[in-house]
């Protein structure tokens, strides 16, 4: 309460009449602490103008004298006033449509987790009249990606979430989006020197580097290492896998590594060929042998190793990627030493939220948004799984 007898304040701390400088100072200090309940009428009384004048200044409409505008803007600046952007948007009735171009998946796959995060964000954004439509493609078939892209082009969208598995094709589609001035966000792996609004995903180069360090700690600098490539009908290697391998090899070259590097192709529908190659590699060494799969499908390598001779299988130490259920089971059983995970649900969730905030509130996201690289062992994986969005 102001001590001046000519100033009157009601029980709700709002001005009634005869506002003096002392009272203005008192309420400015109060509003700075909590401006969540500031009303236009309060700003008007502080500035000594009508509520209509404040409304016209806030929304930049109608005629306002320069003197009154300066008074209102001075009060707004003093109390750090921010209009209720959510209420303003809901009143506008504007709607936005986002496209998600991402791989198909089966239950328990890596991309199911990514899409779970996308769906979670989409559900939260529905109240803002935002809708999300998927265009799925086979991650091992570039022609499937082109078909999905063609279907996407048949419709109009405000923004796009784009999985970057097929680098060259993604760049071509990105250029088309640039020409149409449609904002897009990359997920899973980044592609440098593009005009994407942002990237959400793991640091693939860093992930490969960490994987190599962990593996060398397990097997030493003289042991052999094999890189297992899990292939299906189409022999495609994603941008993420290529970048992880670059990081892996760079770490080995900088670590005085003296062993041999082998490459093994695994066809889940034709295990004998891969098994023969793998057992040949393991037979050449009497010490530990390291192995890595550069995507989430290390469980396919586990299935192959289970058919190998026990004496050979026991000398293998593995590092894998992504905490999907099949990989976690192998980690807990001791078949995998480490799993590196990049929180796929979070990258999908954050990417959609960033796209929504860009349109709703004109918030420009950071260009690069790396997910944490979590190092999982059997002793801590349950704590990791307890974390949910």
TrEMBL record:
Every HTH lacI-type domain range: 38-92
The organism's place on the tree of life at top rank: Bacteria
Protein name per Swiss-Prot or TrEMBL: HTH lacI-type domain-containing protein
InterPro entries for the chain: HTH_LacI, Lambda_DNA-bd_dom_sf, Peripla_BP_I, SBP_2_dom
Annotated CDD domains: HTH_LacI, PBP1_sugar_binding
Keywords noted in UniProt: DNA-binding, Transcription, Transcription regulation
GO molecular function annotations of the record: DNA-binding transcription factor activity; transcription cis-regulatory region binding
Organism: Dysgonomonas gadei ATCC BAA-286
